Every structure is written in C-alpha cells, then in structure tokens.
Amino acid sequence: MMKNEVQGNLFIVAAPSGGGKTSLVRHLVDELDGIEISISHTTRPQRPGETDGVDYFFIDVPTYEEMIQNNAFVEHAEVFGKHYGTAKTQIAERIEAGIDVVLDIDWQGAKQIKQLFDDAVGIFIIPPSIDALNQRLSDRKQDNQAVIKDRMKKAQNELSHYKEFDYLIVNDNFEIAARQLASIVIAHRLKIQRQAKQQQKLLSFLLSSK
C-alpha cells in the first residue's frame, strides 16, 4: 500500500462477551467507505458459520507463541483460556495508506493498543441490562449453562473498564447503536487537523480568492 499524506484513524471497539460489538463493527464497514476491520489471530476453535481469514485467523498455540517471539503482535491477551492477538501488519499499512482501521477486541487489548497509538479512539459497547446480556449469550446456543454463568461473571468485571474509553454506546436498539457508531467515525474524519490536510487546495483557493 502507498503512503498517504493524510493517515487513517484507528478505532477500538470493545464490549463484554455478548455485547454485540462484532455485529456493529461489521455493519459499520458495510455502510462506510474507507474503513476496514483488523482481523485478529486466535487459538480458539472455529465456530459454525465463521470463515478463516474473515472472522479470525485461526492458528494453533505453537504458531501463536512463535508470533509473540517474533514480536508480530501490537497487542495480545488471553480470554476465557484462549489466546487472541492483533498483528502489526493489520494496522500500520492501512493507516499509512489513509484507510481507517477498526479493531474488534476486548478491554485488555484496547489498553495495549492505546499505549502504542495514543490517538486511537476507544468505543465501549454495553448491553441495556444484565438480563439482555444473559439472553444474548443463551441465544448463541454455543455454550452450556456453566460457561454462560462464567461469562456473565466475567462480563461485570469487563464492564468496570468503561471509563478507559472515549465513547460509550448502549446497544439496546441495533439500528440506533449502529448510527451512533458511524457518527463517531464520521466526526473524527472531520476534525480540523485531518481536514486541514485533506482540503488543503480548497482552503488555499477560498482564502486567496478576492
């Protein structure tokens, strides 16, 4: 990818398990141009309906550990006994090409990303209630009740990290939450620092016209 004078923005979208962040992120990139999802690597099993290289890069533990040794990740974390990581190439090349990148990760990964990219925009998604979160986890029909109970317990710990983010969206109505997420992205694209470069020729013409 060629380097662009105006670099892309980096957006971090996090939520407790069952918060609905993945659906919102996919909808975002379908609706807006110039933004792409950073695909994470994971050692967890591939779920029905998931595609390798689209939802995740599914790898084994030795490969994951080798990538850590080679300093290939910008962030990595263990979640529910499985490993996740974001490769450096998934971010740097796109941002330099002027493409916005959105990360669908947990709060641990978000914290690591923020340390490396201090201008990254953090967005936290929360459910409208504990009952709604429990229902969403149950509706997946991928985990037994013991696993769901454990996820619910950990979800409350995850929710306590909301203050570490820049924006908070309540995912009660999907369409409203999707519009709010898109609005955050659009607003950051219109910030003065970015637009001053993007619209340099227009601004120069407007200011020099008599």
How would you summarize what this structure contains?
With 210 residues, the protein is of the alpha/beta class. Helices cover 44% and strands 20% of the residues. A five-stranded parallel sheet has the order 2-7-1-8-9, sandwiched between helices. Strands 4-3-6-5 form a four-stranded mixed sheet.
Gyration radius, to the nearest Å? 19 Å
Give the strand line-up of the largest sheet: 2-7-1-8-9
Helical content stands at 40-55%
**Oligomerization:** single chain
Q: Would you give the CATH topology of one domain?
A: Rossmann fold
Counting H and I runs of at least 4 residues, what is the number of helices? Answer: 9
User: Regions with pLDDT < 50 over 5+ consecutive residues?
Assistant: none
Mean pLDDT: 90
Q: Can you tell me the overall shape?
A: globular
Q: What order do the SSEs take from the amino end to the carboxyl end, as H and E?
A: EHEEEHEEHEHEHHEHHH
From the helix content, strand content and strand pairing, which structural class follows? alpha/beta
CATH class of one domain: Alpha Beta
Biggest sheet layout: 5 strands, parallel
CATH architecture of one domain: 3-Layer(aba) Sandwich
Record field, number of beta strands: 9
Task: Give the CATH H-level superfamily of one domain.
Answer: P-loop containing nucleotide triphosphate hydrolases
Strand content: 15-25%
Cα separation of the termini: 40 Å
